[in-house]
Amino acid sequence: MTTTIPTTAAAVPVGPGLSMFDPIFIGIDEFGQPVYLDVIYRNLLTAGEPGGGKSGLINNICGHAALCDNTRLVLFDAKLVELGPWRDLADAFIGPDIDQAIEVLRRLLVVATNRYAWLLANRRRKLADGDGMSVIVTIIDELAMFSTVLGTKAQQEEFSTLLRGLVSLGRACGMPVVAATQRPSWDIIPASLRDLFGYRAAFRCTSLNSSNIILGQGWAEQGYTASDISPTNQGAAYLLAEGGVPRRIKAAYLTDTDIYNIADYAAWTRRPSGTSTPAVNPTEWEMAA
Ligand SMILES: Nc1ncnc2c1ncn2[C@@H]1O[C@H](COP(=O)(O)OP(=O)(O)OP(=O)(O)O)[C@@H](O)[C@H]1O
């Protein structure tokens, strides 16, 4: 009997074939059922006190996006270490630099505007799987660093205005935004910004008011408050999906080793000889649709 040893594939499919249009697994609910998010059409805001588990949730999204074909990452992390493991496969990785943050947001808005022109020309309202256009996922860890700490007041305001623009435009044109903050207060998350996020995850908060700032006014009074999450129950949160009722979840947790392993594998699948070809030089990345 003759056996044929397959030759090494010239290109390994990403994922394989994983897409941002696929539901993203992020953990389980209180009945042990898996919880999935459709981040492609809904931005995600995650907030809660330090150590509550926000980064865990964000890393689940990053891991999924990193493994997806035709998906690009734009990462903002003033602390560098939270999203740092994914930096090699990101189109842009912005550290504690408000000028760069503003510049990149401006470019993203240009891309979003171009995509709307494309949608209009094609008699469409939103991007769909199969359009062939890349999904650009923007992830911001510690929103407050860019909107209240780094730079001048004018720069912080410009950052916040541009971000508001991207969050409102991005969802229909394949450019979702995921943002996290440790400071659930009105100056960081005004209702006008919060309400643009179709998903909101409230990790442990110190007060009913903080929980309401994330989920929306009135939920704490109805019994849905992240202040009832035990400090030792990291990764537990209330997740609200637009139009629904907050749901208690426990985010899946990736250790640092898991994260680096996924990031390394994803970077390998995205190598120029693979099926997905990122910009050769991140400074020359071409985000236009
Ligand atoms: N889903 C989870 N399951 C079990 N443990 C978790 C989970 N999420 C987080 N933890 C534990 O809690 C610690 C803090 O989590 P994480 O860094 O995600 O919190 P955070 O809210 O992002 O904090 P910070 O705001 O300081 O960045 C982790 O190092 C881990 O030990």
Task: Offer a concise description of the structure.
This protein has 289 residues and is an alpha/beta fold.
Explained architecture:
It is a single chain. With 289 residues, the protein is an alpha/beta fold. The chain has one domain: 3-Layer(aba) Sandwich (Rossmann fold), CATH 3.40.50.300. It is 31% helix and 18% strand. The chain is built from seven helices and ten strands. It has helices at residues 54-67, 98-121, 143-149, 153-170, 191-194, 208-215, 256-269, and strands at residues 24-29, 34-37, 44-47, 71-77, 92-94, 135-141, 177-181, 199-203, 236-241, 247-251. The chain has a ten-stranded mixed beta sheet with strand order 2-1-10-9-8-3-7-6-4-5. Helix 2 runs parallel beside helix 4 (153-170) and helix 3 (143-149) runs antiparallel to helix 4 (153-170). It starts with 23 loop residues before the first strand and ends in a 20-residue tail after the last helix. Residues 1-12 and 282-288 have low confidence and may be disordered. It binds adenosine-5'-triphosphate (ATP). Residues 48, 50-56, 82, 182, 203, 234-235, 250-251, 253 line the site of adenosine-5'-triphosphate.
Shape: globular
Instruction: Count the DSSP helices.
Output: 7
Total tally of structural domains: 1
Percentage of residues in DSSP E strands = 15-25%
Distance between the termini: 52 Å
Strand order of the largest sheet: 2-1-10-9-8-3-7-6-4-5
Q: Mind telling me the C-alpha Rg?
A: 19 Å
The helix content, as a percent range, equals: 25-40%
Largest sheet: 10 strands, mixed
